[in-house]
Amino acid sequence: MPTRQGHVHIVSSQVKAMIESRAQDNGSKRHIAVDVIGLLLTVLVTAASVQDRDAARPLLWNLRKAFPKVGLAWADGIYAGKLVTWAKTALKLTLQVVRRPDDLRTFQVLPRRWVVERTLAWITRCRRTVRDYERLPAHHETVVYWAMIITMSRRLARQRQTPQPHVT
Predict the structure, then answer these.
(1) To which H or E segment does residue 121 belong?
(2) What is the pTM for the complete model shown?
């Protein structure tokens, strides 16, 4: 006979373990590389438990593989250290770290970082990217690409306002 605990009917210990493990899932992280105007170049979705520094290597590797002519990348301060030398030696990619000033006590827009934040906001405008509905990271990456394709194609399809000649 199933028992009731909270709002979930527990049928067996296996089902209970599955529900509890799903409830403790902390989600996923999106790591993106964008161009200077914020258009998506590559995306990597990892578990939320993966450190940002650890996810940067496969992201930069994918960036180099897809766009071999990219020579300079800006990164957040958390990516400083061994990643900069690895990118220089392994990928022939210059990685400049944008650091926050140590004496900064108020909000200040950091150079180049706002571009990535704006792209994340564009991605989040699509309903399926607001929550993590996908079961596999590859599926989530595809949905992110899809969201950016929609954003870019809508911009291309916009009617351009051409100035009408002024007749007097």
Answers:
(1) helix 113-124
(2) 0.71
